[in-house]
TrEMBL record:
<comment type="similarity">
    <text>Belongs to the glycosyl hydrolase 10 (cellulase F) family.</text>
</comment>
<feature type="active site" description="Nucleophile">
    <location>
        <position position="240"/>
    </location>
</feature>
<feature type="domain" description="GH10">
    <location>
        <begin position="1"/>
        <end position="324"/>
    </location>
</feature>
<protein>
    <recommendedName>
        <fullName>Beta-xylanase</fullName>
    </recommendedName>
</protein>
């Protein structure tokens, strides 16, 4: 029997996986989840569009099934996500006539939403991605022009953390983003989080999504980890790992070239060698999917970004981080 990932990394950090509902209700696949992982994230089921029916009205039934399962098996749950420009109903930002609401109105809707949702999962979701993907290095001030930003300005970010902390003072609160290792974006995130901390905003850490590829420069990843961890009181979680086998935009293979899968194995090994080095600040590492054919990456083109293939077999990617050659 192959080694469980969570055992391999028990002295380093938690090992998590994002799963859609179809996996949660598949007993054989959940056996695999329980074997390898001690943390789960709902891939879509705790996002606003999944639980927010109308203002003040929620459907927590599916999300609650994740919580029940995890509780029964002693698995931790990361909450993903509260404030994001995607997968949030458009009407949340609009009045009955379809016009954008005022800053005060959005602030009050945000307060209600975060209090209700974080309150509902209090003590059960141990960590939240409170704000997701708010930085855009192409903007002059570094902030993404989301409806949150357009209506409230950058203050929406600190309010979100404040409300989450009010609803569950024990939950760990994260700012989460992708391409956090790109120097410009990295610096915006670093400065923002440092300032939030200095202001006393209740933020506990930075989530580095880590949607990378076999060509990603991992020295930049290490630089970003170093920089983020230099902020006092900030921990790091790797929240959404996957590694595309492509090094360009255009190609689309029907089956993965052998060489790419081998390279991916070495690249995963290299990544985890870095993560292990910083295991005093990195507390959790989550894969964005259980097996290749379930990866969201396939929405764009065929890809093989995870540790296990469609037949549940461990790839070089798995061996790279479990028994490096
Ligand atoms: C993705 C899911 O994996 C897909 O199933 C869904 O269609 C779109 O969202 N960054 C995030 C995640 O923070 O929530 C996204 O998840 C992937 C990118």
């Amino acid at each position: 029997e192959i080694m469980a990932l969570k055992d391999k990394y028990k002295d380093n950090f938690d090992i998590g996986v994002a799963i859609p509902y179809k996996v949660l209700v598949n007993p054989l696949e959940m056996k695999m989840v329980e074997k390898h992982f001690n943390s789960i994230t709902a891939e879509n089921e705790m996002k606003p569009e999944s639980i927010l029916m109308e203002l003040g009205s929620y459907d927590f039934s599916v999300a609650d099934e994740y919580i029940e399962y995890a509780k029964e098996k002693g698995i931790k749950v990361r909450g993903h996500t509260l404030v994001w420009h995607n997968q949030t109903p458009e009407w949340f930002f609009k009045d009955e006539d379809g016009n954008l609401i005022s800053k005060d109105e959005l602030l009050s809707r945000m307060e209600t939403y975060i209090h209700d949702v974080v309150g509902h999962f209090k003590g059960e979701v141990y960590a939240w991605d409170v704000v997701n993907e708010a930085i855009d290095p192409n903007q002059p001030d570094g902030y993404r022009r989301s409806l949150w930003y357009e209506i409230m300005g950058p203050e929406y970010i600190e309010y979100a953390f404040k409300f989450a902390h009010e609803a569950d003072p024990n939950a760990k609160l994260f700012y989460n983003d992708y391409n956090t290792y790109e120097p410009e974006k990295r610096d915006y995130i670093y400065n923002m989080v440092k300032e939030l901390k200095a202001k006393g905003v209740p933020i506990d850490g930075i989530g580095m999504q880590m949607h990378i590829g076999i060509g990603t420069d991992l020295r930049q990843v290490e630089e970003a980890i170093k920089l983020f961890s230099s902020i006092p009181g900030i921990e790091i979680q790797i929240t959404e790992i996957d590694m595309s086998i492509y090094t360009d935009q255009g190609s689309n293979y029907m089956s993965p070239p052998y060489e790419a899968l081998v390279e991916q194995g070495y690249k995963y090994q290299e990544l985890f060698d870095i993560l292990k080095k910083y295991d005093d600040v990195i507390t959790s590492v989550t894969f964005w999917g259980l097996k290749d054919d379930y990866s969201w990456k396939n929405q764009t083109r065929n890809d093989w970004p995870l540790l296990f293939d469609k037949d549940y077999q461990s790839k070089y990617a798995y061996w790279g981080i479990v028994e490096p050659a």
